[in-house]
Design brief:
Elements: H1 14-26, H2 29-40, H3 42-57, H4 62-67, H5 73-87, H6 91-110, H7 118-146, H8 152-181, H9 183-203, H10 205-219, H11 227-235, H12 240-249, H13 252-267, H14 272-298, H15 303-327, H16 333-365, H17 373-422
Length: 430
């Protein structure tokens, strides 16, 4: 990784970075990862963008909407079955199994009515999250092993962008067309998407080669499923403790704002269709641009130095949204324009920060032994989800209790905590 200070000349090299990323993607390795991360983002898009708007228009409280985030629970537990993915069978077989499970859960969900079969729908979505979380372990393990050091920036860009494209497709995209195609057909289309990626994964040469290596390695490896011993080995990897603290706090304030600001706009005159367009689709384009910028910058500058800059910029964008909440008038086109602008800015910085964060996690994991790399990365990723999920469950209650304005003050304070933590980053990750 190159080091140095930021300067304006980096803007001129962005087209070259994009062209290089496209060239490498067409070679197959990043294309495979992009497809796998894309379908992995579908369950998140359904639950983060589609269902909250649908439930709010049905009259549910903020507290109840936030509690639906409990369906993400399998993502917290994935570190428990990560050793199974690391030590038994191959990553290719795990990928095929889990994506078949997600295709099946989509078909089941399409037969259930959200109004009359909420419990059954929750079970189906829980199954979808379970399959997606196991798939995540396998994909991360593949990424750590096949990406060279000079490809980490590109790989993490593909990871974040692919995941967000899946989220946009299943969230904002489906929210926009749901009234036209209907609930059942919508999930049937999703199952077809999974089948297409399953077929591509089955014939991917990169996975076939990796499977042979993994099979030979597992024959000579002594399996260990003792959770305490595995945890001890994970924690012995250098810089893991600092990275744990980082992934727990780096998204808290941003997560609260992204979750609640669209609902604030919904309560103040903007329609579900407008929010689906601007928050679910257009803002995600800005998030993807930010993620691509983050991948570009990690190939040239110190990751933690970049993180400090973008944390401060994110804090300023949160302050802008807090101001808008205090003065917003839903009848003013100027206010609506400012609100849309703030959403796009927030997603742009959020996308950049996410790519930088996953680059830090992968740098830390690469210092682990190859036989626990997927488990180590899954451990960090699980804590990353835990940090976001635990606060997401509470954020609706906070808004119901103290209102939007004071809640956004809390979000800013949490963002300051993240800034202070990154200033204590170890030199090996900076």
């Amino acid at each position: 990784m190159k080091t140095g200070c930021l300067n304006v000349n980096f803007i001129k090299t962005i087209p070259g970075f994009v062209l290089t990323a496209i060239h490498r993607t067409m070679n197959g390795k990043l294309l495979l990862l992009g497809l796998l991360y894309c379908v992995q983002g579908i369950p998140y898009g359904i639950q983060s963008s589609l269902l909250p708007i649908y439930f709010r228009t049905s009259g549910l409280s903020f507290t109840k909407i936030s509690l639906t985030k409990i369906l993400y629970f399998p993502w917290i537990l994935k570190v428990i079955w990560a050793p199974l993915v690391d030590q038994f069978s191959t990553k290719r077989q795990w990928l095929l199994l889990t994506m078949c499970g997600m295709a099946l859960s989509c078909l089941i969900t399409g037969t259930l009515s959200p109004e009359y079969n909420f419990s059954a729908l929750a079970v189906s979505l829980l199954l979808m999250n379970l399959m997606a979380s196991v798939q995540d372990i396998a994909v991360d393990g593949v990424a750590v092993q096949i990406l060279q050091n000079d490809e980490v920036g590109y790989g993490n860009t593909v990871q974040v962008v692919g995941y967000k494209l899946g989220s946009v497709f299943a969230g904002g995209g489906l929210l926009t067309i749901m009234n036209l195609v209907g609930w059942g057909l919508m999930f049937a289309l999703l199952s077809i998407v999974y089948v297409i990626v399953i077929l591509y994964t089955a014939v991917a040469s990169e996975l076939k080669t990796l499977s042979k290596i993994q099979s030979n390695h597992q024959k000579s490896m002594k399996h260990c499923l003792n959770p305490w011993r595995i945890l001890q080995e994970i924690l012995r990897v250098p810089d893991t403790f600092w990275t744990i603290g980082f992934v727990l706090v780096y998204k808290l304030g941003e997560q609260g704002a992204i979750s609640m600001f669209p609902l604030f706009l919904l309560d103040h005159g903007m329609s579900a269709g407008e929010i689906g367009l601007w928050h679910g689709m257009v803002a995600m384009v800005f998030s993807i641009i930010g993620s691509s910028l983050g991948g570009f910058l990690t190939t040239r500058y110190k990751v933690c130095s970049l993180m400090k800059i973008f944390f401060i910029l994110r804090l300023l964008s949160l302050a802008f949204q807090t101001f808008l909440i205090n003065v917003f008038n839903g009848n003013s086109w100027l206010m609506k324009g400012c609100a849309i602008l703030s959403i796009n800015i927030q997603h742009f910085f959020g996308g950049t920060i996410t790519t930088l964060a996953f680059s830090i996690m992968m740098q830390c994991t690469k210092m682990a032994h190859v036989r626990i790399q997927a488990t180590h990365y899954s451990f960090l990723a699980t804590l990353e989800v835990l940090g976001k999920l635990s606060f997401s469950v509470l954020v609706g209650w906070i808004v119901d209790w103290v209102g939007f304005f004071l809640s956004f003050i809390v979000f800013q304070l949490l963002s300051v905590v993240a800034i202070l933590h990154v200033y204590k980053a170890p030199k090996t990750l900076s």
